[in-house]
Amino acid sequence: MKRPVVAIDGPAGAGKSTVTRLVAATLGYVMVDTGALYRAIALAAKQAGASFDDEAAVGVLAERLASERAIELGSDENGGTRVLLAGSDVSQAIRTLEMGQGASKVSAQPRVRSALLAMQRDAGRNGGVVLEGRDIGTVVFPEAEAKFFLTASVDVRARRRFDELALKGTDADLEQVKREVEERDRRDSTRPIAPLRRADDAMVVDSSNLEVSEVVEAIVARVRAIEAALNAP
Ligand code: C5P
What's the pLDDT at 184? Predict the structure, then answer.
């Protein structure tokens, strides 16, 4: 049976991670959280004592990590993403506000993006995979059969990020989280390479007033229809 590549793009806090995990589980597809790759590069830069803006140092680092296959994505017992950096589990360490900002800075650099491109294409080569990110439908898999652009209002997204952090016991300030979400949106959508934008053929899903289950159902229904069309005699 042929199975499509599913691309789920959208801004920070739109609910991509939760939705991607559930869509992949429902369809029996593999999930790939591409943001985790950029976060891992940011963490590696910090560990190496390099500034996120030091393009030369971060570029060399990203190319080395990619060629050594030192960033590995797997899944944890809850179906979430497990991330290994040079063999160490950094799944928690990459989920901080600092690494979100760091990922947003390193991901604007051409060398970093091209270092991670082959890895992402490899992961989706055989279909049956859900990739979530910013440029999956536009750059990584422009030919993906099923593309979605998941979004929500800034207030809703800031509130979700805030709740997520609170759940992890991180003391955050809602206004500050909102400013960070806005800053990340601005940086991600205005960068010259692979900016965050909706692919022309992506279905837009605004999750501001939808339950997670409604978003998942809408996406799964569309992917099943595409699967059926791909396998039609
Ligand atoms: O989705 P997540 O918040 O983990 O992504 C962190 C950052 O990585 C984003 O703000 C974005 O700058 C970058 N990113 C990207 N392209 C992707 C996925 C993430 O530029 N495909």
Answer: 87
Domain count, the chain: 1
Give me the pLDDT at residue 218, please: 97
Does the beta carbon of 103 lie inside 6 Å of ligand 1? Answer: yes
Full-model pTM: 0.92
Domain limits for position 10: 5-230
CB 145 within 8 A of CB 137: no
Which CATH number does the domain housing residue 210 bear? 3.40.50.300
What residues form DSSP beta bridges with 129?
5, 30
What is the Cα–Cα distance from 72 to 119, expressed in whole angstroms?
Answer: 10
Q: Which residues of the chain have pLDDT under 50?
A: none
Give distance in angstroms: CA of 133 to centre of ligand 1: 6
Three-class SS of residue 6? Answer: strand
Tell the residue nearest (CA) to atom 10 of ligand 1.
104
